[in-house]
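Contributing new complexes? Match this layout with iron/sulfur cluster.
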Amino acid sequence: MKPLTEVRSRTATLPFENIDTDRIIPARFLTTTERAGLGVYAFNDWRYAADGSDNADFPLNRPEAKGCAIVVAGRNFGCGSSREHAPWALLDYGIQAVISSEIADIFRSNALKNGLLAIVLGEAEHAELLASPGIELSIDIASRTIRLPDGREFAFALDGFARH
Amino acid sequence: MSARTIVDKIWDAHQVRAETPETPGILYIDLHLIHEVTTPQAFTELRERGLRVRRPERVLATLDHSTPTLPADAHGRRPYATKEAEHQVEQLESNCREFGIELNGWDSDHRGIVHVIGPEDGATQPGMTIVCGDSHTSTHGAFGALAFGIGTTEVGHVLATQCLLQRKPKTLAINVDGRLRPGVSAKDLILHVIGVIGVGGGTGYVLEYRGSAIEALSMEERMTVCNMSIEAGARAGLIAPDETTYAWLKGRPRAPRGEDWERAVAAWRTLPSDAGARYDAEVHVDAASITPTITYGTHPGLVTPISAAIPHARDAQEAKALGYMGFTGGQALIDEKVDVVFIGSCTNSRLSDLREAADVLRGRQVADGVRMLVVPGSVLIKREAEAEGLDAVFRAAGAEWREAGCSMCIGMNGDIAQPGQLVVSTSNRNFEGRQGPGVRTVLASPLVAAVAAVHGRITDPSAYLEHAA
Ligand code: SF4
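Output block (do not edit by hand):
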């Protein structure tokens, strides 16, 4: 894993609460014995239509969400199972940071061990970011701050993050 | 020393190094349960780093998630859903051989769902720290153990070091006093509790269930309650050990014997929380107020008394959940047509659960057009159920009687329902697609599930019981 000191990206939002691990990667893809290559299954049943094409309703399929490495999600992201396949899939899909007002304990621990930033903000700060998709954020890991385009900074706590 | 909770006591007894503001604490782990899904990458990591398993005798392995629940054919071939599923099982078999870990494999009488066999063998004991790469590890808390679900990286750490890095969780006391009404089960109790505290209400906490209604529960019922702690987001859930616990454990294969048993019980008696111990938060629930409870949405926090109209959506999230389920706020779920009934999972697949379902089905038929799957939690439970003739009851009613495993709880082995179908399930998760893409899940007790199978519709079991009497 390459050392990570900063994540800078436009944000995409998933404005839904309780996005569970079965949504992030359905159980039928857990028969793998590898960590790699799970990105194609990230959000599988949400992201693809029945015929395998992209589902236009899935927020991360929108043109403006392409290439966004920071996802701002509704409260209680990652609830459900302990599958580490969830952060493996998100990282492989190109997501480097998830921001919410509440993140499930096991998901958060798994994410941080793999270098996926799982950041919990207060309600007001979270609500502001959730309401402004597409803004450019810069997350500085050493100072544990998120810098907004207008220069304001949101501080966050981070424990057990694997920086290398 | 000041008054301590059971969590404090177990934590203090296992703390290798205390946490600091910068670093989590280090906790010694007594028992590590493993299965085929969350371990292959951990063993790969050990191999790549040239590490051994530190205490193989503290690791107990089983096959449960990816395993077919239909028997092997005449040539001994098992009907795996996919090549990958078969490969995953073979990986665990070879990893256990290579690293000297005991596997309750295909040829073992002790194979079954990981959270069923630990207690069944007496490996799960009061005061222990227990981990498993599985979120329902909280089940083992029923015995007064501190049991965490962990990820695969942590599985690797525990295999290599027998220790876990962990911040000490907060404690939330769930006080349930009074008596459960007839026909109201442990499953109804825990669904009700999750409805009260919410699907994220336990985040950061260990739940300690206490009070007279909890003390009155059997061990099987306590396991059902603790099992679903994670559905409220909790790190773990537990119940202080008592005479019920000791009586259940005594004589089990891995339980202490003779003088060791006496010594162990004496130590276990010191575990319950001291009078006056402080919790970070407390909740009070009146057991008598609980009625048969089911879910109506797409997470286990959206629950309703079975006989009540479901609430109108309070926000966009709930509207989305109702939309997926095809339900409308204000409607009753009674008489909703059911396609599949699943009795099984680490929540409700023990002998007492199977008996409860069989009592309903005895002399009756599964309704036309309904598929019913009954999957015992372990090989031993299956055998005990067959010795009592429960399999014959299920088969005569038209239900499928399967081999032990997780089965339709997670659908990894191919036991899934079809898109749009409504499943009344005794398992623990009703997330979108949990039991197959597009499948709609209603969580319920074995009694409610069995009654739904007979009627082909969601039916109030209390009315049914009066009718049957
Ligand atoms: S029965 Fe379901 S919840 Fe329990 S261990 Fe198996 S898959 Fe997980």
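Reviewers usually confirm one structural detail per submission. For this one: The first helix of chain B runs from residue 6 to 14.
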